[in-house]
Specification:
Protein name: DUF6428 family protein
Helix content: 10-25%
Number of strands: 6
Strand content: 25-35%
Organism: Albibacterium profundi
Radius of gyration: 24 Å
Order of helices and strands: HEEEHEEEHH
Shape: extended
Oligomer: single chain
InterPro entries: DUF6428
Low-confidence stretches: none
Pfam family, one: DUF6428
Mean pLDDT: 88
Amino acid sequence: MKLSEIKRILPTLENVEFQLENGAIVPEHFHVTEVGLITKKFIDCGGVTRNEKVVNFQLWNANDLEHRLKPGKLLNIIELSENKLGIEDAEIEVEYQAETIGKYDLDFNGKHFILKNKQTACLAEDACGIPPVESTEKPKIQLVSIGNTCTPGSGCC
């Protein structure tokens, strides 16, 4: 989800609610402790220099059980970050701590913002000699192609 999308969604909500992809709900007393721009410049395993920018939200659960972040307040935080930090319309990455700090992509299901699990990937598979991933689906066989040997009264069904 891009920053422009969350800015479009927030005014339509009564509450800001986050949910992990596994269905667990982020406690409603969370705080957004940071909104920032993360720039990553790196070389992939194929030797290609890459630049990546994401807007980063950090969620934190405090002992402040009465805290509730309202959509307007989060929108104000986002707009302040855009103005003070020069944040562009980029993909959002959310940091949230479970067992350790996890980084998540963001989606919206109509009620909750969904923290989607991120996966690592090789960006230069062709340069690494990694064969394409084959489908893990089982081949579908049409039973008619095997032969129709089961007839009524034959005892096979």
